[in-house]
Amino acid sequence: MTAPDPRDSDPRDREALTGVAAGRRRRRERRGEQPMVPKAEFTSYYGRPVIKPPVWKPLDIAGYLFLGGLAGASSALAAGAGLTGRPTLARNAQVAAVGAIGLSVVALVHDLGRPARFVNMLRVAKPSSPMSVGSWLLSVYGPLAGGAAVSTVTGRLPRLGLLAGLGAAVTGPAVAGYTAVLFADTAVPAWHDGHRELPFLFVGSAAVAAGGLGLATAPLRETWPARFLACAGAVTELTASRLMNRRLGMVAEPYRTGRGGRLMRIAETLTVAGIATAVLGHRSRALSALAGTALLTASAATRFGVFEAGMDSARDPKYTSLPQRERLRAGEGSRAVTG
Amino acid sequence: MTDPAAVSGYEDPPPRMGFFTDTSVCIGCKACEVACKEWNAVPEDGLLLTGMSYDNTGSLNASTWRHVAFIEQRKPLALQDPGVMHPDVDVLEMAPLGSSTPPEQALMTPTAPGQEGDLRWLMASDVCKHCTHAACLDVCPTGSLFRTEFGTVVVQEDICNGCGYCIPACPYGVIDQRKGDGRAWKCTLCYDRIGDGLEPACAKACPTDSIQYGPLDELRERAAGRVERLHEAGVTDARLYGHDPADGVGGAGAFFLLLDDPEVYGLPPDPIVTTRDLPSMWRHAAAAAAGLLGAAVLACLTGRRR
Ligand code: SF4
Ligand code: SF4
């Protein structure tokens, strides 16, 4: 990390010579609820972060969360639609799945510090590393989704295609869900502390995206499953998000403030509007397409929102230190400090 | 079995080695930072003045594997007098006497103690903790990070693909990605020296023995004795950080004697290895994924079919 240029800093920050300086002052006043953790005396080392924020690029990684979710949930939807006589929905979902997963692999490789070494991801299989689990999962799911789509589009090897489609339908939801573990298994407060709700928020968002894509591209007589999936996903996602905000107390602040908060609000508004349009406009092709587009955008906004909220919570030392200090005060901490 | 090397599969490993950094004797000379850079050929990482203190490095990062923190406090250090306050001295009155005044006639000499002050400097050389339960190592997907026979945690730079996962996983913000290189770097506890029986470069260079290297068991004993002696001497602020195997990372291989709360030094007050909650995370994710599959099935089985 490069040191900040002193000329950029607020002169009051430079007065903070006593070491017990209060945390970094926020330029913008926070809106919304106050921290639920009782106000504890907060100390930091000149307002610097305690943990290192991820070095991941937002477009690559938040984009991957969105695309991976879209692909995984689409595969599940495609298999069901294919087996229940909705061929266009099935085909569109399959093609979307393979496109999304292909793009997301490109994003993942692009994000590596050493892209040429991407194969090292499959050098070992480590259950303690969600990224290792995810790499193996992708290497199973990707070819299955690809095989299913190729078979459907070309009409070749229908049996094998069906099997591949079923395989993708089972592994797809795992692809959509594991990314929550990927984020939660870090020291980033807003992600780690939300480890119970994030998986539901993520698969909910994935269902919203896959449902949205189905709504936007399938003929009206086949859109029922897409609409159903989008509704179920929206309810799951919004509920998980509420629960998480409640349980996390002050650590959930970044989900309500700053860039993360803005994106989460956009996502919520678009989800509700998209669902309402999808339900009320179920007889209209144009309205269904509009609803589908809104839902796809909403899902992307959710992923970028979660990403940004995590970054904010990592940058501000109070989200790391305060809950830990509270834990110690309440006698629930471990024995980090002795003597 | 608490020896991380044995847990990692080493048969009959050597004793676990570590650092005890006693910040009560640190003078902030940064010899450790320099020695580390020299020995490990760590590149320069920006020549900036932070403007906040004598700390111009800021934090541990990919190219700073020892970092000396400076904290200035309005608080007396027990039984010690920094002796820097001379508010009653009139330099203009002293000036006519000239610089060759014999000491007994001088109003003041360079060693004349000042008034008892209320200022203290805390200096602490931070480093990778070489955790017993190391999050960075747990989450590394390539196996680039590994446990050595000495119980330390080291990155293999020929394997790291720069995925960056270890960086937000570390509860202390130690490991970091080097810009332009793309890979993750951190302290190796001088793996190439300790294998030859040499002490790490920083410990070797430290003029006050603030950085002590040795078998962890011995260091823990020595540290406990040191805290006791400091308490007896009235330095009641003295405490150990990362010393206890019952902490959230199973005890640090590099632990510290601090004179204030960990936060003051930029350290987390109660760090916990993130992978402790991994089983719970997988359970929740499995339930969520099953729910998604169920919802998709239900979606297709309901509704009017063609
Ligand atoms: S302090 Fe961080 S980088 Fe060092 S071993 Fe522990 S988790 Fe890894
Ligand atoms: S950046 Fe390198 S050392 Fe860190 S987790 Fe990825 S592969 Fe492992």
From TrEMBL, chain A:
GO cellular component: plasma membrane
Domain of life: Bacteria
Membrane topology: Multi-pass membrane protein
Keywords noted in UniProt: Cell membrane, Membrane, Transmembrane, Transmembrane helix
Biased composition regions of type Basic and acidic residues, renumbered to the chain: 1-16, 315-332
Compartments reported by the entry: Cell membrane
Pfam families: NrfD
PANTHER family according to UniProt: PROTEIN NRFD
Stated family: Belongs to the NrfD family.
Record's protein name: Polysulphide reductase, NrfD
Species annotation: Thermomonospora echinospora
Organism ancestry: Bacteria, Bacillati, Actinomycetota, Actinomycetes, Streptosporangiales
Automatic annotation (TrEMBL), chain B:
Binding site for [4Fe-4S] cluster 1: C26, C29, C32, C206
Alphabetic keyword roster: 4Fe-4S, Iron, Iron-sulfur, Membrane, Metal-binding, Repeat, Transmembrane, Transmembrane helix
Any one GO BP annotation for this protein: formate oxidation
GO molecular function, one term: 4 iron, 4 sulfur cluster binding
GO cellular component: cell envelope
Cofactor(s) the protein requires to work: [4Fe-4S] cluster
Free-text comment on the cofactor: Binds 4 [4Fe-4S] clusters per subunit.
Principal cellular location given in the protein's record: other
UniProt binding sites for [4Fe-4S] cluster 4: C140, C160, C163, C166
Alphabetized InterPro entries for the sequence: 4Fe4S_Fe-S-bd, 4Fe4S_Fe_S_CS, FDH_Electron_Transfer_Unit, Formate_DH_Fe-S_su
Pfam families cross-referenced by the UniProt entry: Fer4_11, Fer4_4
Protein origin, superkingdom: Bacteria
Transmembrane segments: 281-301
Compartments it resides in: Cell envelope
Domain 4Fe-4S ferredoxin-type: 17-47, 119-150, 151-180
Binding residue positions for [4Fe-4S] cluster 2: C36, C187, C190, C202
Keyword match Magnesium: no
Binding site for [4Fe-4S] cluster 3: C128, C131, C136, C170
Name the UniProt record assigns to this protein: Formate dehydrogenase iron-sulfur subunit
